[in-house]
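User: Hey, my collaborator sent me this sequence without any context and asked if I could get a structure. I don't really work with proteins. Can you help?
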Amino acid sequence: MPLRSDWSSATCPIARSADVLADPWVLLILRELFSGRTRFDQLRDATGAADSVLSRRLTAMTEADLVEREDSDEARSGYRLTEAGRETLPILHAFARFARITDPEGPWGLTVRCGEVSESADWCATCAAPLDADSTRWARRSMGGEPFALIAGHTA
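Assistant: No problem. I've predicted the 3D structure and written it out in structure-token form, which is a compact way to encode the shape of the chain:
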């Protein structure tokens, strides 16, 4: 019996999206790509995925048009987010926001724009601009409770 169903041709957009994005490895790989880690070995080390697991997920993400491969040598291969991949940022923000709601004192990722922590997964409450990969920084509370820049968008 398969562990999950194939929802790739479902009429429900949530089911079709879940077919691609509901895999925890995919979410962790996206997190690392947004953080600037783009090489296979960096992604493996940061996520803790076995080579075979990471290779399968990256292949599936390439087929789903979330990432593009940059090089040919697998150990040195680089991956770049496509436009569709970049559109997943609010989903990752929502996961980080959920973590803050369930454990407000935890060291969870915070979305930051305009120097302010956003209370939304998709827009800045300070300037009303969208939280996109080019202008959003992620932060994590340090031991002292102050946020510091941890992960930056592509050109921020």
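In plain terms: The longest strand covers residues 147-152. You can pass these tokens on to your collaborator as they are.
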